[in-house]
Design a protein that fits this description.
Number of helices: 9
CATH topology: Rossmann fold
Order of helices and strands: HEHEEHEHEHEHHHH
Number of strands: 6
CATH class: Alpha Beta
Shape: globular
Largest sheet: 4 strands, parallel
Strand order of the largest sheet: 2-1-5-6
Low-confidence stretches: none
Mean pLDDT: 96
CATH superfamily: Creatininase
Structural class: alpha/beta
Strand content: 5-15%
Helix content: 40-55%
Radius of gyration: 20 Å
Distance between the termini: 43 Å
CATH architecture: 3-Layer(aba) Sandwich
Length: 299
């Protein structure tokens, strides 16, 4: 496979890749509990691995993966309390929504400043963060020439585990485990699965993880490459039609748009909602400390 990873390419290789297909792919995820059978970095490993195969097949450059993503607060804390339990250490690389989305604004700025015609933002982490990602990019697009698109991994997995469009995503179950197995086989160890009679939770392992299949993972990845080929062609054609200017160039531009366009909308982002009863996460839970969404004007 030819080199497509931004951080491992030489300047002439980057220029050639840009000339051939001026699109950049941004992979997102985090380290979080994914059962005893998977490496904790599954989300970003999965996203990065898929994008590298996409770029190798259809062109473009893959940005360095971002392993810092949303967790620990709101619905994520409630989910973790229920499905991860009380481990001695969570092994998370978590940041709050406002920090994650501001970081993405700077990633958009870099794509714009370098003149990419399109930028695709791909998260391997589930929950409502991907809906906010789409909202964020829609807020930014009127101010940015680069054509933007964001999606969760399962959106591209249109044929799913069985090839019939069902079972397109899960958490540390047969879909995610099979994908990681296909992409990074050293990061999956099925011998670590708990015995069938061991009571859950098992570090957030999906109940159907024993059904994981590396060949199914390879098939899903291949189908995802086809989905990306169509989407990338659409984004580049849109750019060629619009011929937009690239005005989102500086750090000041990012801060200005953040303050005037994005930050006023943050309270309506789904990851910023707190609609839980008082006992959703009890005080003695390891997930209690950051559960509640802070009510501050300076987020």
């Amino acid at each position: 496979m030819r080199e497509v990873r931004w951080e491992r390419m030489f300047p002439d290789e980057l220029e050639q890749a840009f000339a051939n297909r001026p699109i950049v792919y941004y992979p997102y995820g985090l380290c979080e509990p994914h059962g005893p059978q998977n490496a904790v970095g599954l989300d970003a490993l999965k996203a990065h691995g898929i994008l590298c195969k996409v770029a190798d097949r259809i062109g473009g450059i893959v940005a360095p993966p971002d392993y810092w993503h949303i967790h620990e607060l709101g619905g994520y804390a409630i989910w973790a309390h229920q499905y991860v339990g009380q481990p001695p250490r969570t092994w998370l690389t978590a940041i709050p929504p406002w920090q994650h989305f501001k970081n993405i604004c700077y990633h958009v700025r870099m794509a714009e400043a370098l003149g990419f015609h399109a930028a695709l933002f791909f998260t391997g982490h589930y929950g409502p963060n991907w809906e906010d990602l789409k909202t964020l990019l829609a807020l930014l697009q009127p101010h940015v020439g680069t054509r933007l698109y964001g999606l969760p991994e399962f959106e591209s997995n249109v044929k799913g585990f069985y090839g019939d469009g069902t079972t397109t995503g899960d958490h540390a179950g047969k879909v995610e485990t099979s994908l990681l197995w296909a992409l990074e086989p050293d990061c999956v160890d099925m011998s670590r699965l708990p015995s069938p009679d061991a009571p859950p939770p098992h570090f957030a392992m999906g109940s159907n993880a024993p059904e994981s299949n590396r060949l199914a993972g390879e098939r899903m990845v291949e189908n995802q490459i086809g989905w990306f080929e169509t989407k990338v062609a659409e984004l580049l054609a849109d750019y060629d039609t619009l011929k937009p200017s690239h005005a989102f160039q500086t750090f000041d531009d990012v801060e200005r748009i953040w303050e005037s366009v994005v930050r006023p909308e943050l309270p309506r982002f789904k990851t910023m909602q707190e609609s839980w009863n008082e006992n959703a996460v009890p005080p003695d839970s390891v997930w209690y400390a950051n559960w509640r969404i802070p009510k501050r004007d300076n987020l």
